[in-house]
């Protein structure tokens, strides 16, 4: 092999090795068409700051979804999460999806099993009445919720078949240390956290079956539950609808981090 030919082959080999070693570049976030769906945990209830035009849906500009959109400037951002949403409501939200949507986030299921009434019962009643109400909700979660989640995820997939879909569970609400005035007993807090774990397991299973991405919040909120020294969730609050929802730190440090990790 002549000198020129040798150097030409060597240069080609070096060029190929450089190309092979270069990691694939992720699609720019500016190309995303993002829709944030779901219930009050997505809309931002608990942050105490809402877009007045969103009415009872209580959509907050400091919820995780608009925070992500502000930082990443996607091609489009549609915020349709709404306080109080159950699976039929989220299926109606899905009517706004199109085949051009490339990124979706949501949580749903807590309202279907009556978690708000469970928390009210636990706040006002005895340990046993709390346990009984929790047991009712857990039974609903196991027997009726899976089919409701399947129908909801199927509707989303049919409307936006190419979208990357991130589904959140619900964080454990409570730290188990000493709780101040108005706090729930340790036994109630333990039982409610166990119920949240059961609900998470059900949601995770149906998310996996749908081929979506599961964003588990539990580890991220460890040490930041109600009754901790650094709460990312509101305890019993006024107005009452702010209670038992993520606060601004919960969204900016908990949900947003989990969302980023899920989408890669």
UniProtKB/TrEMBL annotation:
Q: Which domain of life is it from?
A: Bacteria
Q: Give the signal peptide, or none.
A: 1-26
For the keyword Cytoplasm, the answer is no
Q: Among its keywords, does the record have Signal? A: yes
A GO molecular function assigned to this protein is:
triacylglycerol lipase activity
Entry-linked InterPro entries? SEST-like, SGNH_hydro, SGNH_hydro_sf
Give GO terms for biological process. Answer: triglyceride catabolic process
> Can you list the disulfide-bonded cysteine pairs?
57-82, 122-130
Query: Which PANTHER family does this entry report, sorted A to Z?
Result: LIPASE 2 (PTHR37981), SGNH HYDROLASE-TYPE ESTERASE DOMAIN-CONTAINING PROTEIN (PTHR37981:SF1)
Q: What is this protein called?
A: GDSL-like Lipase/Acylhydrolase family protein
Q: Whose protein is this, by species?
A: Allokutzneria albata
């Amino acid at each position: 092999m002549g000198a020129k030919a040798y150097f030409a082959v060597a240069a080609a080999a070096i060029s190929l090795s450089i190309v092979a070693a270069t990691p694939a570049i992720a699609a720019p976030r500016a190309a995303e068409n993002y829709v944030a769906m779901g219930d009050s945990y997505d809309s931002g209830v608990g942050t105490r700051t809402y877009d007045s035009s969103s009415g009872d849906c209580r959509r907050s500009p400091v919820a995780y979804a608009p925070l992500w959109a502000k930082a990443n400037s996607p091609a489009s951002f549609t915020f349709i999460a709404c306080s109080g949403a159950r699976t039929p409501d989220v299926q109606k939200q899905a009517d706004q999806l199109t085949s051009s949507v490339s990124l979706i986030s949501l949580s749903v299921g807590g309202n279907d099993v009556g978690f708000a009434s469970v928390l009210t019962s636990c706040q006002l009643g005895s340990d046993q009445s709390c346990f009984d109400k929790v047991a009712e909700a857990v039974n609903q979660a196991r027997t009726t919720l899976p089919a409701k989640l399947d129908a909801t995820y199927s509707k989303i997939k049919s409307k936006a078949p190419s979208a990357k879909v991130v589904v959140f569970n619900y964080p454990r609400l409570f730290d188990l240390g000493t709780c101040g005035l108005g706090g729930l007993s340790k036994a109630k807090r333990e039982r409610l956290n166990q119920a949240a774990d059961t609900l998470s397991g059900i949601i995770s299973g149906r998310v996996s079956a749908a081929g979506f991405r599961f964003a588990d919040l539990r580890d991220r909120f460890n040490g930041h539950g109600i009754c901790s020294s650094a709460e990312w969730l509101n305890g019993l609050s006024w107005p009452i609808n702010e209670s038992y929802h993520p606060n601004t730190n919960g969204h900016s440090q908990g949900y947003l981090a989990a969302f980023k990790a899920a989408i890669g």
